[in-house]
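quick one, 185 residues, struct below
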Amino acid sequence: MQHCGENSHWFAVRTASGRERFVAGQLQAKGYEEFLPIYRTRRQWSDRIKDLELPLFPGYLFCRFDFNNRLPILVTPGVKLIVCYGKQATPVNESEIENLRKVVASGAAAEPHDKYLAVGERVRIREGSLAGVEGILVDVKNSWRIVLSVELLQRSVSVELDRAAIEPVLAKRTAAGGPARKAAG
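---
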């Protein structure tokens, strides 16, 4: 991509409602690397059932660019803003993007999670197309799911998985400097 230099990072871009695909196409046409994670769902109306592809983060997409050269992004039709923390340019963590890319590429059953999760039993997927992906383990309606979060957006997605394919992630050292403990499970 022509706009990917050493100063380029992934940023979250807020779009007008329902315009995520349009904006992604516009950014791609301008030569930017964009990422719009989608999931498949089935909706039922009174007269029919329809399979849909919807954004995992409604109203957002991700784009790699140099924040100092953000004007071409901001003037793109359908773009509302670039998500920042206060007035500080805040890139999305590269590992969060890579985990989302793996999930989308795998075709795994993913969907938006009803609440943002930052705390819980951290696990890593050991095998398969999602090997290396880390998240928080949850039990949803007797089905094990791993929850991946985008801290900047304070939003999460969950992915169905086989509990046998995961392993606990070692906990970080405590503030008092105590030893890391293995998560229960």
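The two ends are 43 Å apart (CA to CA).
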